[in-house]
Design goal:
mainly beta; 13-stranded mixed β-sheet
């Protein structure tokens, strides 16, 4: 009995010691310097994706891998081409600037996720094909992820005035998109949106 308790305690300690935490940076076991960990060509993000029916019930669960495939020059600037590996299609063109994470959309750089940020900040941008207004709701919240507990900013994106939520995104400057919830319109009612799918970060490999 004592031996079983000892091994359970040892297992718990080992699990705890292997947790990764982001405090504006990312720490991994194995002595990797977190200051060097920034997304670059070759970085992969593994997400669990949950897709829902319009009535809120779960439709399916899939694993989705995004990868920084290459750099492309758009508008005279270099952008990381982030692809969905299975479909081999571009998800975003992303670049970090002094005021946050930008995406190249509508033939121009668009502020995607403002950072540094303060609660209450809001800005207009262009996202997934249309104009969207983003609000910073929380800053440096602890978010559990597949790579450990992460300090993340939380953003909400609205379309058609600040009434119809389209996006909920949790962001960290070293790992970028940690979690994302997307809403879309019901087939029968344009102004009634439902939770369509959620991405949870399970792993990131630099």
């Amino acid at each position: 009995m004592c031996r079983s308790v000892f091994f359970l305690f040892l297992f718990a300690v080992l699990i705890s010691s292997c947790q990764k935490e982001i405090d504006g940076t990312i720490t991994f076991p194995g002595g990797v310097d977190p200051a060097t960990l920034k997304p670059k060509v070759g970085t992969t993000w593994t997400y669990r994706m949950y897709t829902y029916h319009q009535d809120g019930t779960l439709y399916q669960t899939l694993s989705m891998i995004h990868r920084a495939k290459n750099e492309e020059t758009l508008g005279g600037e270099k952008w990381l081409n982030i692809i969905d590996v299975d479909a081999d299609t571009t998800v975003y063109y992303l670049q970090v600037k002094a005021d946050g994470l930008y995406q190249y959309a509508n033939n121009a750089p668009q502020l995607f996720l403002k950072d540094p940020a303060q609660v209450g900040d809001n800005y207009n941008t262009y996202n997934t094909g249309v104009s969207e207004q983003f609000f910073v709701r929380r800053v440096k919240d602890t978010l559990p992820t597949g790579i450990g507990d992460v300090l993340a900013n939380y953003y909400e994106g609205y379309r058609y005035n600040p009434y119809l939520i389209r996006d909920e995104i949790w962001y960290n400057k070293n790992a970028w998109v940690l979690r994302r919830t997307e809403y879309q319109t019901r087939n029968t009612r344009f102004f009634f949106w439902y939770k369509y799918r959620v991405f949870y970060l399970d792993n990131i490999v630099y």
